[in-house]
From TrEMBL:
<dbReference type="InterPro" id="IPR003390">
    <property type="entry name" value="DNA_integrity_scan_DisA_N"/>
</dbReference>
<keyword id="KW-0548">Nucleotidyltransferase</keyword>
<comment type="function">
    <text>Catalyzes the condensation of 2 ATP molecules into cyclic di-AMP (c-di-AMP), a second messenger used to regulate differing processes in different bacteria.</text>
</comment>
<keyword id="KW-0067">ATP-binding</keyword>
<dbReference type="InterPro" id="IPR045585">
    <property type="entry name" value="CdaA_N"/>
</dbReference>
<dbReference type="InterPro" id="IPR034701">
    <property type="entry name" value="CdaA"/>
</dbReference>
<comment type="subunit">
    <text>Probably a homodimer.</text>
</comment>
<comment type="similarity">
    <text>Belongs to the adenylate cyclase family. DacA/CdaA subfamily.</text>
</comment>
<keyword id="KW-0812">Transmembrane</keyword>
<keyword id="KW-1133">Transmembrane helix</keyword>
<feature type="transmembrane region" description="Helical">
    <location>
        <begin position="63"/>
        <end position="82"/>
    </location>
</feature>
<dbReference type="InterPro" id="IPR036888">
    <property type="entry name" value="DNA_integrity_DisA_N_sf"/>
</dbReference>
<dbReference type="GO" id="GO:0106408">
    <property type="term" value="F:diadenylate cyclase activity"/>
</dbReference>
<dbReference type="Pfam" id="PF02457">
    <property type="entry name" value="DAC"/>
</dbReference>
<dbReference type="InterPro" id="IPR050338">
    <property type="entry name" value="DisA"/>
</dbReference>
<keyword id="KW-1003">Cell membrane</keyword>
<protein>
    <recommendedName>
        <fullName>Diadenylate cyclase</fullName>
        <ecNumber>2.7.7.85</ecNumber>
    </recommendedName>
</protein>
């Protein structure tokens, strides 16, 4: 009891701040790698560390030497294997502003939202598959280069025409930057998350995949059911209705949304309401 009392007496404000910072960093790192390959690799590394310590305790010198060298030389291999997660983490740290910086004019904001909603409503009604990526702080030039440059003003007619089946640009993703359609028929990285529902096809996995590697927002329309989905930060929200979609897009493009860090936390409630409505039906 005295030892515990002495330990608490020696803890100062700096120690509390130090522990709090480490706890926050650890929490965010675990949150970042959750549901990715890095989660399984982290478990493997933890097992190796435990085995290394056990071999040291039991004086198994050969095994200890092998495991110690494996950890030493494996550091470079870890950097290579964890490259996507490290890149995602560094990009997350570097994000300081939002899509509003890409807007050419504040007066264009309502028009962009209206055009997007009209296009998605038409595509959903006709059960035409669509994948629209809204670029924010993280640049998507590498993705744009895989498709065809468009560089046109966002309009419902343009978006609908792009995704009409059997047209040259319908297969792939459309990249939006502010109020402009930058490119179409772009190829996206698929998500490696094993927890994604088996009901979701390549389009949805691609939409989730790009949000795992950047701060972009993915808007998807299912060609099987016509349902509308949105993904951000590797998390997908399905079965959105048009009023909910409009609120989300207004929140993204509106100049009044100063100080908001992640719109997903705000429109998650919308999704829960939609899910309740679906269950009632």
């Amino acid at each position: 009891m005295n030892i515990i009392t002495e330990m608490f007496n020696t803890i100062g404000i700096r120690d509390i701040i130090d522990i709090t910072i480490i706890a926050i960093i650890t929490y965010n790192v675990l949150k970042l790698i959750k549901g990715t390959r890095a989660e399984q690799l982290s478990k493997g590394i933890l097992v190796i560390l435990i085995l290394t310590k056990l071999s040291e305790w039991f004086k198994l010198y050969t095994i200890n030497w092998l495991l110690s060298n494996l950890m030493t030389w494996g550091f470079v291999a870890i950097l290579v294997v964890f490259q996507p997660e490290l890149r995602r983490g560094l990009e997350f740290i570097g994000r300081t502003s939002s899509i509003r910086n890409n807007m050419s004019s504040k007066n264009d904001v309502p028009e962009v939202v209206t055009e997007l909603c009209d296009a998605v409503a038409s595509l959903s009604r006709q059960k035409i598959g669509a994948l629209i990526i809204i670029e924010k702080q993280t640049g998507l030039n590498e993705i744009v280069e895989t498709g065809t440059r468009v560089d046109g003003i966002v309009s419902s007619g343009l978006l609908i025409n792009i995704f009409i089946p059997n047209t040259p640009l319908h297969d792939g993703a459309v990249i939006l930057k502010g109020d402009r359609v930058i490119a179409a028929a772009c190829f996206l990285p698929l998500s490696d998350n094993e927890n994604i529902s088996k009901e979701l096809g390549t389009r949805h996995r691609a939409g989730i995949g790009i949000t795992e590697r950047s701060d972009a927002l993915a808007l998807m329309v299912s060609e099987e059911t016509g349902s509308i989905s949105i993904a951000e930060n590797g998390t997908i929200s399905r079965y959105l209705d048009l009023p909910t979609l409009e609120k989300i897009l207004q929140d993204i493009y509106s100049p009044k949304a100063e100080g908001s860090n992640s719109m997903f936390s705000r429109w998650r409630n919308f999704d829960e309401e939609v899910q309740d409505e679906i269950s009632k039906k």
